């Protein structure tokens, strides 16, 4: 090996090897590279039931020994806030996931299901019997421009969960994790990011409770950690990851001290021995995209004892650098993986990337903007 350009080594056979392509042992899973499919909501699961077209979509993005995280998937009939997002609380949904998971496994991928509850980021139209969405609080959200930049989402003021109702919601996450195992997933990622229910408890600018789930940092993180514990007890901590975004402000959920929040969670998570912690970069503060940020995930990375995954605004070069410098174990790619089904191969060859089309991120079409992004061979 001799030194190459920034973070690369040129091996003696003249081929360039990059750190993103070093194998990695994540608990019991042998990953062949460090490039992860980030969870991506695509709103093509009609009636909250995963559809056959998702088999092709996910298998296109599978590489042998690659880790994929499925789109956010509802844990119960109160968990939805967007049309046609998948669920995993009914038998029909579990059965519908099975061929999708099989398609990923057939190509040697490792597939985790992101389990989700939107909390107050919803309206009564998504709720059973038109009831109010549930949350840590009864503070309403202002109408919000959707990520597609066109639609304006309207929210129904939420109903604050009573303390005695909270175990039921934790149990919904536990059952969803059990169902994910039944569907054949290799594990679950608890969605503790982006202003959804778990963050509505964690973040001090939302949580205004006075019971044991509100107030101090410890109290605000209790809900998240009780979910981690319940899910770990159900399926084994070696199959459990969590996603956090302490620095993000999405869905009106900022925190006045995100550094302490991130660090507290990393240290608390160590007690459960979960497989991974997946954290969104501070530069993804707003839904609009990358901004300059003086903050770093390094203290959280150093505090957490399991596998660390970063996401948010990464390209081939800075992802490679982050692994080379040991700032992370794995790098999750969202929009570039959405638009490049063969992203790992393109990175390996340093090939050009397809551009993503934001307009079809959340449209219903089972092909357009979903499974029709070209592979390298067909663009050559
Ligand atoms: C279309 C789309 C859907 C997304 N859906 C989810 C989701 O379901 N769960 C989640 O945690 N993050 C979701 N995200 C955030 C991504 O996982 C990722 O963190 C974000 O796109 C930043 O990474 P990138 O710069 O590589 O795209 C979504 C992003 C996009 C663009």
UniProtKB/TrEMBL annotation:
This is NADH:flavin oxidoreductase/NADH oxidase N-terminal domain-containing protein. It comes from the Eukaryota. Its cofactor is FMN. Keywords: Flavoprotein, FMN, NADP, Oxidoreductase. GO terms for molecular function: 12-oxophytodienoate reductase activity; FMN binding. Belongs to the NADH:flavin oxidoreductase/NADH oxidase family. The keyword Oxidoreductase applies. Pfam families: Oxidored_FMN. CDD domains: OYE_like_FMN. It comes from Rubroshorea leprosula. InterPro entries: Aldolase_TIM (IPR013785), OxRdtase_FMN_N (IPR001155), Oye-like (IPR045247). Residues 20-353 form the NADH:flavin oxidoreductase/NADH oxidase N-terminal domain. PANTHER family: NADH OXIDOREDUCTASE-RELATED, NADPH DEHYDROGENASE 2-RELATED.
């Amino acid at each position: 090996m001799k030194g190459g350009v920034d973070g690369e080594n040129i091996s003696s056979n003249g081929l360039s090897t990059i750190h993103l392509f070093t194998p990695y042992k994540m608990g019991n899973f042998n990953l062949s590279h460090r490039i992860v499919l980030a969870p991506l909501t695509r709103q093509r699961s009609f009636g909250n039931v995963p559809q056959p077209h998702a088999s092709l979509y996910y298998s296109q993005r599978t590489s042998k020994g690659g880790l994929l995280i499925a789109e956010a998937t509802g844990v119960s009939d109160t968990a939805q806030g967007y049309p046609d997002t998948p669920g995993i609380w009914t038998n029909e949904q579990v059965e519908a996931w099975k061929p999708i998971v099989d398609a990923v496994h057939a190509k040697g991928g490792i597939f985790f299901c992101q389990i989700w509850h939107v909390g107050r980021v919803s309206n009564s139209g998504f709720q059973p019997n038109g009831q109010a969405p549930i949350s840590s609080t009864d503070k309403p959200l202002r109408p919000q421009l959707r990520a597609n930049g066109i639609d304006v989402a309207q929210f129904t003021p939420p109903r604050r969960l009573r303390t005695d109702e909270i175990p039921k919601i934790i149990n919904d996450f536990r059952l969803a994790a059990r169902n994910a195992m039944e569907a054949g997933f290799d594990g679950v990622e608890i969605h503790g990011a982006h202003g959804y229910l778990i963050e509505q408890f964690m973040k001090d600018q939302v949580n205004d409770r006075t019971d044991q789930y509100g107030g101090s940092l410890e109290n605000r993180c209790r809900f998240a950690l009780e979910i981690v514990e319940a899910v770990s007890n159900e399926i084994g901590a070696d199959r459990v990851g969590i996603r956090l975004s302490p620095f993000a402000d999405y869905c009106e959920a900022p925190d006045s001290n995100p550094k302490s929040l991130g660090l507290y969670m990393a240290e608390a998570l160590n007690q459960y021995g979960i497989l991974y912690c997946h954290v969104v970069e501070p530069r993804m503060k707003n839904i609009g995209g990358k901004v300059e940020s003086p903050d770093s995930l390094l203290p959280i990375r150093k505090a957490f004892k399991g596998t660390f995954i970063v996401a948010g605004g990464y390209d081939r070069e800075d992802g490679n650098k982050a692994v080379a410098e040991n700032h992370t174990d794995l790098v999750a790619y969202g929009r570039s993986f959405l638009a490049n089904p063969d992203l790992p191969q393109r990175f390996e060859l340093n090939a050009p990337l397809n551009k993503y089309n934001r307009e079809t991120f959340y449209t219903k079409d089972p092909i357009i903007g979903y499974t029709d992004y070209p592979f390298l061979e067909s663009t050559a």
